[in-house]
Amino acid sequence: MQSIHSYSFQNKKALVRVDFNVPLENSTFEITDDTRIKAAVPTIKKILSAGGSVILMTHLGRPKNGPDEASSLRHILKRIEDVCETKVSFSKSCIGKEAEVACSKLKFGEILVLENVRFFKEETNGDRAFAQYLAKLGDCYVNDAFGTAHRAHASTTIIADFFPNDKMFGLLMEREILNIDKVLCSSEAPKTAIVGGAKVSSKITIIENLLSKMNSIIIGGGMAYTFIKAQGGKIGSSLVEDDYLQTALNILEKAKQRGVEIILPIDTIIADSFTNNAKRKEVKISEIPDGWMGLDTGKKSQILFDTVLSNSKIILWNGPMGVFEFTNFQSGTKQIAKSIVDATQKGAFSLVGGGDSVAAVNKFGFADTVSYVSTGGGAMLEYLEGIDLPGIKAIRN
Ligand code: AMP
């Protein structure tokens, strides 16, 4: 396997798979968050400064039937130029004559953007001929798209086969792997994971995998009520997955056998309806009256979680601790973020990942005060589940 740090890019055209799937305003196509573009800049600049040129491949949106104006990379070209501080050229198709000519004309130190790879269904189908066609456009392949590393698509995985000696991770991808591995594999202790969010069913494999990696697991958010009900608690009309009551008990039992501490909330803020302006009360989590639902973590639980986190050396957070989208039910999520920041300031390594917890640290302004915020939603979750991600495997093999 090659390394971007030692590979010679001199006079080489590097095909770089990035994840520029940025959110766009519906009517104006203005970019509302350019984090993903900024995240790829170190890799792009590294290749250019080493004497190479860069051919960027990415998807944008979810085009279903071929080329689609709303998902055209034309909308983001100007921002790529601004962020990379250089002009970029554009090919209106990622394959075909235009792409071939544009790539052959590319001079060293220049950037070319290929149109959305998902305008061809062959991309998501992982088509080998399509991947080979893309591969012919460059001399080496750099995968810097951690956000799509869990997909065995043509430009994220299959293409690597055509560069047996000239494939490598980009700097962002490298950093993501390093930081997640630091949480999962570090021998520092105590290690605490906080798993929140709506459903046990979507996080079960992650929790099971974390049982062999962590000393403590805090379970919060909507999924906590399934655990409380499974243990005989009264949860009113809180979110519950009745099919997973036994699963919840199995997890508690497995944790006990392994000596992993599972920490559940002890109190909760309940509401008489699923609205921000609902009536609120704070009660013991196992004594929720009929007609009421738990939407946030109570004060005593917040203190309990803070104590655990303040003693932790490695912290992983995925999933909110309540319905943080409602300002009246965000305190548990805000407090856990604050406890993580405090622990980080005391020397702990903290990683936040997965859609809604990243949205939460951004919302509360804590993104710069945790150790690392992962850019990969689904990819990060699958990595935490212990899955060998195809995009990573394709580079390593
Ligand atoms: P997930 O995508 O599984 O991480 O779930 C995130 C969602 O869980 C957010 O939209 C939260 O509003 C929601 N959530 C967290 N706590 C609760 C709760 N107690 N009841 C209902 N939904 C919740």
Please explain how this structure is put together.
By secondary structure, the protein is an alpha/beta fold. The protein folds into two domains: 13-171, Phosphoglycerate kinase, N-terminal domain (Rossmann fold, 3-Layer(aba) Sandwich); 178-384, 3-Layer(aba) Sandwich (Rossmann fold). It has 14 helices and 17 strands. The protein has helices spanning 35-49, 77-84, 97-105, 121-125, 128-135, 171-185, 200-210, 224-230, 245-258, 299-310, 331-345, 355-363, 377-384, 390-396; strands at residues 13-17, 53-57, 88-91, 111-114, 140-143, 167-169, 191-195, 216-219, 234-235, 261-263, 267-271, 280-284, 287-288, 293-297, 314-318, 349-352, 372-373. It has a six-stranded parallel sheet with strand order 3-4-2-1-5-6, with helices on both faces. The longest helix has 15 residues, at 35-49. The radius of gyration is 23 Å and the shape is elongated. The model has no long low-confidence stretch (mean pLDDT 96). It binds adenosine monophosphate. Adenosine monophosphate binds next to strand 14.
List its salient traits.
6-stranded parallel beta sheet, Rossmann fold, 397 residues, binds adenosine monophosphate, 17 strands, alpha/beta, 36% helix, 2 domains
